[in-house]
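Example record

The entry below shows one chain as it appears in the dataset: sequence first, then structure tokens.
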Amino acid sequence: MTATANDPALRSDCRDGIALITLARPAARNSLSLEVLDALVVALAAIAADTAIRAVIIAAEGPAFCAGHDLKEITARRADPDSGRAYFTTLFDRCSEMMQAIVRLPQPVIACVQGAATAAGCQLVASCDLAVASADATFATPGVNIGLFCSSPMVALSHNVTRKHAMEMLLTGDMVSAADAMRIGLVNRVVGPGEERGEAMRLARRIASRSAAAIRIGKQAFYLQHEMKLADAYDYASRVMVENMLIGDAKEGIAAFLAKRAPHWKDP
């Protein structure tokens, strides 16, 4: 799969059921221009429709993972007749669309963070289901430093870390180390510099070895129940368990466990 073959700023390919999306604007610190956001939306839609893909990794080239929105592009659009209002509306709407597409994607998405992830780049990490970071990686929502509170990154951040940790990042704009990011729940694993890509791939392969049908059901249920009251969440999750129990992979998985053999997933 090469959903973005004609876009040099974003590469997307798939091997052995794992899709790798690579941000490839190192000179611009992999900032999210409107063009890059559009390409990400297209790439994610192609992945969602491809049942052969079982896990996704989002990585980046160069020293920075993602510096957020392209401030040079933003500044240039202030010369528009409406001072950039229409462009800003399109930009932030597209960014929100892309972040939500990650959450809605049937396949789990792993952020592979080798360097700084700031503003919408930090939002991208928080929007992924899992994150593996180099010990050299850093994280921040520094909009407050330039008079632009990171309101949309705030959504993903506040859904992943505790309220006070999120507020501290948002109010100070300070950089957070990879170790602290793991401590507050923004990333899952921290590895030595240069080892993050291999670790992300190992995690993706482990996920890909499970039932894609069960993971698809579970990922959707996870995010839906998270927004419910406790009793409603249990009622919903119980109904999901019933439906999951009735699919072929659940029958095969239980039979394999009882027979002490490896399961043979069929995935509807």
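Notes for this example: The chain has a mean pLDDT of 95. The CA atoms of residues 193 and 241 lie 40 Å apart.
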